[in-house]
C-alpha cells in the first residue's frame, strides 16, 4: 500500500515523504512523540474550544517549526519521524498537511 506524507507551506515549498520502504511507527509511540513535540514547541490549540485533534497537532507542529525543519539535511531524521507519526496516527495512504490553509487532507 502506498504511504506518503506531504507538508505544504506554499508555492515551491512542498515536501514529500515516501514511506513505502520505511518501517511503520507503532501507534502508541507515534501519539507519544506527537504529544511531546506539541508540548516542547509550545504549541497552542487551534480551536477556540481548546480541543486538540491529531490533525491539529500536525498543523501546529509544522507551523511552529517552519519549512526549514522539512528541508534542511540536518533535520531530515526529525522530518521522517514527523511523517511516520502522521502516517501511523491517521492511517491513510496519502496525507497532505497544508500549513497556510490550516488543513489536513487524506
How many angstroms separate the termini? 14 Å
Helix count, DSSP H or I runs of 4 or more residues: 4
Helix content: 40-55%
Structural class: alpha+beta
Task: Give start-end ranges of low-pLDDT stretches.
Answer: none
User: Would you count the extended β strands for me?
Assistant: 4
Inertia-based shape: globular
Question: Main β-sheet, in a few words?
Answer: 4 strands, mixed
Q: Tags for this entry?
A:
106 residues, single chain, 4-stranded mixed sheet, 42% helix, 4 helices, alpha+beta, globular
Structure description:
With 106 residues, this protein is an alpha+beta fold. The protein contains 4 helices and 4 strands. It has a 4-stranded mixed β-sheet, with helices on one face. Strand 1 and strand 2 (14-18) form a beta hairpin. The chain starts with a strand and ends with a strand.
What does the secondary structure layout of this molecule look like, with pairings?
Layout: E1 4-8, E2 14-18, H1 27-40, H2 54-65, H3 68-71, H4 76-90, E3 94-98, E4 103-105
Parallel strand pairs: 1-3
Antiparallel strand pairs: 1-2, 3-4
Give a nutshell description of this structure.
The chain is built from 4 helices and 4 strands, in the order ββααααββ.
Amino acid at each position: 500500500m502506498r504511504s506518503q506524507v506531504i507538508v505544504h507551506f506554499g508555492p515551491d515549498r512542498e515536501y514529500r515523504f515516501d514511506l513505502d520502504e520505511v518501517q511503520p511507527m507503532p501507534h502508541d509511540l507515534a501519539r507519544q512523540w506527537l504529544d511531546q513535540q506539541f508540548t516542547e514547541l509550545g504549541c497552542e490549540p487551534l480551536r477556540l474550544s481548546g480541543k486538540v485533534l491529531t490533525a491539529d497537532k500536525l498543523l501546529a507542529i509544522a507551523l511552529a517549526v517552519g519549512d526549514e525543519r522539512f528541508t534542511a539535511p540536518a533535520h531530515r531524521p526529525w522530518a521522517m519521524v514527523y511523517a511516520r507519526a502522521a502516517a501511523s496516527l491517521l492511517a491513510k495512504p496519502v496525507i497532505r498537511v497544508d500549513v497556510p490553509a490550516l488543513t489536513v487532507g487524506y
